[in-house]
Amino acid sequence: MRSRSTARTVIAAFAGVLLAASVAACGNSDTGGGSGDGNDKIVLGFSQVGAESGWRTANTTSIKEAAAAAGIELKFDDAQQKQENQIKAIRNFIQQKVDVIAFSPVVESGWDTVLKEAKDAKIPVILTDRAVDSADKSLYKTFLGSDFVKEGRLAGEWLVEQKKAASGPVNIVELQGTTGSAPANDRKKGFAEAIAANPNLKIVASQSGDFTRAGGKQVMEQFLKANPKIDVLFAHNDDMGLGALEAITAAGKTPGKDITIITVDAVKDGMQALADGKFNFIAECSPLLGPQLMDLAKKVKAGEEVPARIETEETTFTQEQAKEALPNRKY
Ligand code: GYE
Question: Does 74 lie in the same domain as 138?
Answer without folding.
Answer: yes
